[in-house]
Specification:
There is one protein chain. The chain contains three helices and no strands. The mean pLDDT is about 85. It is an all-alpha fold. The chain is about 65% helix and about 0% strand. The protein starts with a helix and ends with a helix.
Length: about 100
Amino acid sequence: MRTIVILAASAALAACESMPPTPPPAPTIRVYQCAPSAGTTEPESVPRPPVGDYTQEDVALYITQLHQWGSRGWLKVARVRERSTRCQAMADDEEETD
């Protein structure tokens, strides 16, 4: 009986001494922030159309303002697209070097 108790105690102590295997290292997660800057996403007020008794000159000025407003919007979209493309290219380059 004494032998069984000694064997059980030594088995229990031997199990406490063993170390569990080390876990594998956590994967590296890279976060890229390719968000456009605040200035490129701020809305611009739309030109107001002429109201009431207006002339052809008023209409021409409105159309010119509307065209300029639209052109600025498309330039903003192009800048955001360029920035996003550059950021994506940088992220792809870093992933290839790993």
